[in-house]
Design brief:
It contains 3 helices and 15 strands. By secondary structure, the chain is mainly β. The protein has a 14-stranded antiparallel β-barrel.
Length: about 300
């Protein structure tokens, strides 16, 4: 076998280290901008308490990717399915895969929700719990250099761990307000946290209100929303935005501003059996000098439900 000079080996290790740390930094920023779909299109992404809210089997697929020429830019793919198998009960499954740099993180969770009626106007108090596995690894196929590097092996020796989410949300035909703990492992077992999770989301709360505007030939809905996110190792983030839906045509427009210095603009089409949405996240802070915006595409399929 051909022996390489010592400085070549050092250069390879330096390249691995740079890509590894860059991936962590990019992933850190990506976690500050969650999937836009959780605010309006797929609230089950926000809280397990909202699994099985409709009378159909709702299947949602989302994909987002940062537009950048730099290798290893963040990508997120999400698949959820939720339905209502019995009165007051919701079930769901959530599969999420994030890639940033050399790091790939995969989460698979199942959810149980209980929807308790508390009054007229479709008022409900919704409780939800998710349990599943979370795994984070370095992708050896993307390593440029020594795939057997000790640092990579040590990171990949960490086993997948059991994690969970807990949420409580009040809903009515107009109002929705609630909160979610998206990482029960860190919330209740901090001493067992031995891996690096940049900017981990610790708590999120949301409140929105739907205004219905109708006349003889128009049917509009305006839904302002505000959210508050507590993030590990970062300032808390406030999100504020709206969703404007033209029910006659199924077309909707939305906007969202994040106090982490970014904003989302989106639009889509929402029909009885399917929906599609597109959004673009624009960074307004200093990071926009080296990271372009993020494009997100989402598809919803509704099966076995009654016409809305």
């Amino acid at each position: 076998m051909k022996n390489h000079p010592p400085h070549i080996g050092l250069m390879k290790k330096a390249v691995i280290l740079i890509l590894f740390l860059t991936g962590m930094a990019l992933d850190s920023h990506a976690q500050l901008n969650p999937l836009q779909s959780m605010y309006f299109q797929n609230p089950y992404l926000y809280s397990p308490a909202l699994a099985g809210m409709s009378n159909s089997l709702d299947i949602n697929m989302d994909y987002s990717q940062q537009w950048s020429n730099f290798p290893g830019t963040p990508k997120t793919a999400s698949f959820t399915a939720d339905f209502q198998p019995a009165d007051k009960v919701g079930l769901g499954i959530d599969v999420n895969n994030e890639t940033a740099g050399l790091i790939k993180q995969t989460m698979v969770m199942g959810s149980y929700a209980y929807h308790l009626p508390v009054g007229g106007n479709n008022q409900k108090l919704n409780f939800g719990l998710s349990l599943g596995l979370n795994s984070s690894r370095v992708d050896n196929s993307e390593v440029v250099g020594d795939e057997g590097d000790d640092e990579i092996e040590q990171y990949n020796q960490q086993k997948p761990y059991v994690d969970g989410q807990l949420g409580v949300v009040y809903t009515s035909n107009n109002l929705s307000i609630g909160g979610t703990i998206p990482d029960l492992k860190y919330a209740f077992f901090k001493t067992s946290d031995d891996r690096f999770d940049a900017d981990q989301l610790l708590f999120i709360s949301m409140a929105s209100y739907k205004f219905f505007m109708q006349n003889e030939d128009r049917d509009f809905t305006l839904e302002p929303l505000v959210a508050y996110r507590v993030v590990r190792g970062y300032n808390s983030i406030v999100d504020a935005g709206f969703n404007f839906a033209m029910k006659n045509t199924g077309i909707y427009l939305q906007g969202m501003y994040h106090s982490s210095k970014s904003m989302n603009l989106g639009f889509g089409l929402d029909e009885d059996t399917y929906a599609v949405n597109f959004s673009y996240n624009i960074d307004t802070g200093p990071i926009n000098t080296y990271a372009n915006g993020t494009l997100e595409v989402g598809i919803t399929i509704r099966l076995f439900g009654k016409k809305r």
